[in-house]
Amino acid sequence: MKVYLDNAATTPVDERVIELMTKVLKENYGNPSSIHAHGRKSRTLIEKSRKKVAAALGVTPGEILFTSGGTEADNMALQCAVKDLGCNHIITSPIEHHAVLYTAERLAQEGSVHLSLVNILPNGHVDIAHLRQLLEEHKDKTSLVSLMHANNEIGNMIDLKEVGGICEEFKAYFHTDTVQTIGHWDIKPKECGVHFLAASAHKFNGPKGIGFIYVDENVQVKPMILGGSQERNMRGGTENLVGIVGLAKSLEISLAEMGEMKERILGFRKRMIERLTSEIEGVVVNGDYNGKTNYIPLNISFPAHKDGEMLLFNLDIAGVSASGGSACSSGSNIGSHVLRALNADSSKSSIRFSFGKYNTMEEVDFTVDRLVEIFSPSKKEVTA
Length: 384
Ligand code: PLP
Fold this sequence. Notes:
With 384 residues, the protein is of the alpha/beta class. It is built from 11 helices and 12 strands. The chain starts with a strand and ends in a 10-residue tail after the last helix.
């Protein structure tokens, strides 16, 4: 059996999305910027897609700009806030995705902004009292608060309305990385005081290399990528037509089927937690897994074991694809900055399992069975 439990890294593309994208790829080759009939057909598809995305978020189409994915959207939010809105203070957290963290660090190194990191509580949540304190201490500055909606490794979620309300109180701009939650939660940026929001299609069974940024209409920013007048002069370059159509379709499907998917995945989580904690001694579930959490990732630390370092590899050999912390840093062997921020026990090996709509309970049981085998007493030789 081959089991894919790495849906927070990326998801399989929905067949209905593939079908539509294939059709568009074959039939719509006109450049959307051309004014002839072929071009107009492509343009219409882009604008229809934009309208669908905007309607799903309860915003106007002009507030949605298609990007190459979540990374570009995060970069754009931070850079535009600093360069165009005069933000000279960024508050973010040490457990953000590197698309945010590295951009914030670069801006700080360039001397354009002061960077503050909000404290993380032992359960992995942002310390809201500290956020207030930082905003209060830097009242004289124009601040951008950049906090992700759900953490990609441990799943912990912030309350967008709460953070948006605090930003409003301190007249700060608010960017949220919703890459892990768009398509899986009902998100309405206008109800939460969000100025920028980043999203990516491949996390909700859409294609890779396409995403979008929401930019509140009251915020005037300049393009980050210069060139043609695409995306209402906000992002030069011929549009990824097939990707855009695929993004809109996958978002539409995900939102329509969200309730059903959530219910099934909650069942998988429950079973996995119950079985792992009762069948393997010393298993710890990281983050606020029973509280304010996204339902997709489940981050588990396993007890010290002679094959601890090889756990992911052994699971892979057994047919299970999962991830050690964030997929984006796996392979570079630098460990998880998120688990480090939580002071997780470094003698334990941690694995992020993340569920999707195509998983089955049989696959969950298969995965737990393999883990139980790996940790069975005959194989277990705990290192000192
Ligand atoms: N932000 C978060 C929270 C993510 O999980 C990811 C991808 O793993 C990204 C941003 C980057 O998105 P993309 O792969 O579309 O560039």
